[in-house]
Amino acid sequence: MVVLVMLLLVLHPHKSCKAHIVKCRIQYPHQPLHTYHKSGDFVIGVIAAHGGFFSSSPTFAEEPPPPLPEELVVAPKGYQLILALAFAVKEINENPRILPNHTFGFHIYDSYDNAEKTYHATMLLLSTLEKFVPNYICDTQNNLTAVIAGLDSEISLHVATILHIFKIPQLIYGPSPVMNDKTTGLSFYQVAPPETVQFEGILSLLLHFRWTWIGVIVMDNDNGERFVQTVFPMFSKSGVCFAFLERIPKYKFASESYDMVQKGAKILDKMVGSKANVVVVYGESYSMVFFRWLPFLQGTAKIRGKVWIITTHTEYISFAFQRNWDPEMFHGAISFKIPFSDLPGFRHYIEGRNPSSIEGDGFIRDFWQQAFGCVFPNPIANKVEESMCTEEEKLEDLPGAFFEMNMTGHSYNIYKAAYAVAHALHAMSSSKLRHRGMVHRRRLKNQKQQFWQLHHFLRSVSFNNSAGDKVSFNQNGEMVTSLDVINWIISSNQSFHRVRIGKMNPQAPPGQALTIDEDAITWPSWFNQTQPLSVCTESCHPGSSKKVKEGEPSCCYDCFPCPEGKFSNQEDMNDCNKCSDEDYPSKNRDACIPKERSFLSFEEPLGISLVCFSLSFSLITALVLGIFMKHHNTPIVKANNRNLTYTLLLALLLCFLSALLFIGQPEKATCLLRQTAFGIVFSVAVSCVLAKTITVVVAFLATKPGSGMRKWMGKRLANSIILSCSIIQAGICTLWLATSPPFPDADMHSVIEEMILECNEGSVFMFYCVLGYMGFLAIISFMVAFFARKLPDSFNEAKFITFSMLAFFSVWLSFIPSYLSTKGKYMVAVEIFSILASSAGLLGCIFSSKCYIIVLRPGLNQKDQLIRRKI
């Protein structure tokens, strides 16, 4: 039932004036127009679809006898829309604060959901009552003020094309019509929330339950196409895909039923064969009666396992012959609903409805017969039917598909629309603008010409109705409100309940518009009270990413494990991500784990071992130095310049201790000192070895008669060699520190699970220059010692120096590949080992034999013993 409401304007001197009943029935081919009249100063016009379609019969043998051929079949539930308007007008007329000294009336016509009859009814609203003469007005009491239409957008558009000419306001309580190039100038006041709010609510609902594979069924008209064109890009952008898209054709007569059955069978096949467990329905007021046919279209095919998501303007309704049809398929459906507050007195008002006690209501008898399945006596036919209407039937006994005692959202919109017009008229009647157009009551007929001014007052209307809800329009003529999310609970005995499970608030912050109480939801019985899953492909688990199948929608994809070094910590990720430099992927590649801070510490076994070796060698070196200093006057100590020996031992002592700079967490000071200190100290040690070797050579050459090498004998040569060689190394280190010094750094990439704390050498070239210079000194020392190893001298150290240089080369030549092939703290350990090994090689090769003689064979440490050995 779709209602077109007409507001008429009639001026009475007092509010107490009784509104008279205008009886009017205009004949139309096949069926008269149903009407419901109440006169008043201000009259609202309403066009309703009380009729459904003209039918002969449904073709199911098990069903009750169908209506007679071409009998009008109605959906009784729409009758509440009419009662909502009548109740609102009754309240307005009884309220002394609204339109005092005036009465409010209405005039309702049935549209029969037919364009031709809708245009006819609209023209009747614009004519004198009982006279269908367009543009002819002779009634000074009943003047059209505004029109409320309609529940279906096409009805609203048909009405608007005529009302726009007369500048009469139209309030829509359903979805707004689709505008095209020919209708862009039409204006409406939409009492229902904008459809964009509902579209966003559907998307939020799908995303909340992660339903990405859905079926969509729309009406085969402009509104259905608008829905598809609007939501398809919106849903696709959010990852929701259409498993199927079907359109419901519009029908009016039983002759079209075969095509409807064929279309229904096709839709049924799509639904049963699809993996989509969620079906979004964008229908119109009567669409539900079509879906109630689906279970009967194919023998054993059962529509199970589907969650219906239904828009606000699609109500749970039935035709009379569908009274006993199984409603199980809609149990657990989720719909959006216009929120409303309980109106005091409304239930009591409708409980008193009775066909014999209501005058002027041309709808109630048809409603009564269709809803209760009875007929009224026909005095002409003088025939008694088996199921006669007794008028003692109770509306509260009707199933929810036929009638609801509580006000529905659409009825509440009509209620608000009537009050909006009343408040706008009240404001207009109180303004100076209206009084300038009415000087005397005898000029009342000119008052109709002023109702174009009502638009201004409707745009600015703002009030709280009797339920306490605020009513106002925004700049677009829309009444922006929230939407309730409703769960349909339907029993096999046709009992119907709505359970509020959430709310869609368009004014909430982003991401918080939809609130859902999942515990309050009753799912279809097929799912055994567990949340349904509606996806094309099972979710890709964390640790993998999805790849869309070629030629398939984006919701159909394959899952692939994340490659090495990447992770995904959510389901259905389009690509795997890299962890930050301080993290690394877990074994399952579903999370990032913080990297361990790795460095050669004093607490770990390797660090402790190297510290022990370093201190041990330092202690041995100090012990050797002490032995030599204690026996500093013995021939072995005095030979080959004992000052060089002391310098060499001190340098080796510092080399062993410098290894400690490489252990522990790198700091700025240790990074600056570790390589440069070792380089300089070890260069001093190698310089001492070189000086010792050259001293041996010079001493041998000086013993030859007439040799000029005697002048080079003494400490000056040795000191010059040590000083010059050490200064060069010190200069290289100074240049290194001045240009690109070492600094603390963290290597994030060499080892996946570790963050290596190290000293960045700054300039790798300068680092190898330091090592290369030490190698150069060692090569010179080796060459000189090798050639001097057989010189006849009891104190000749050249042999020992040669072995020490061979040990040095062995260590450092193996150091380079080992250093480059290791990572982290083990690379540092290799360098420490090289320092300790090369220093220990010098200490052992040069001083072990001397310490043996000094400590264990002191008898050999005599001058005469050495001279005898020399001879």
Strand order of the largest sheet: 11-10-12-13-14-17-18-19
Strand tally:
28
**Termini Cα gap:** 138 Å
Residues in helices, as a percent range: 25-40%
- Helix segment tally: 21
Please name the CATH topology of the domain at 605-870.
Answer: Rhopdopsin 7-helix transmembrane proteins
CATH superfamily annotation of the domain at 605-870: Rhodopsin 7-helix transmembrane proteins
Just give the CATH class of the domain at 605-870.
Mainly Alpha
Oligomer: single chain
Return the CATH architecture of the domain at 605-870. Up-down Bundle
Label the overall shape.
rod-shaped
Unreliable residue stretches? 1-32, 53-70, 437-449
Overall pLDDT, averaged?
A: 79
Approximately what portion of the residues adopt beta-strand conformation?
A: 15-25%
Q: Kindly name the structural category.
A: alpha/beta
Structural description of this entry:
The chain is α/β, with parallel strands linked by helices and about 850 residues long. Among the domains are: about 195-335, Response regulator (Rossmann fold, 3-Layer(aba) Sandwich); about 545-595, no CATH class; about 605-870, Rhopdopsin 7-helix transmembrane proteins, CATH 1.20.1070. It is built from 21 helices and 28 strands. An 8-stranded mixed β-sheet has the order 11-10-12-13-14-17-18-19, sandwiched between helices. Strands 1, 2, 3, 6, 7, 8 and 9 form a 7-stranded mixed β-sheet that branches. Strands 26-28-27 form a 3-stranded mixed β-sheet. β7 (about 145-150), α3 and β8 (about 170) form a beta-alpha-beta unit. α15 packs antiparallel against α16. The longest helix is centred in the last third of the chain and has 35 residues, at about 670-700.
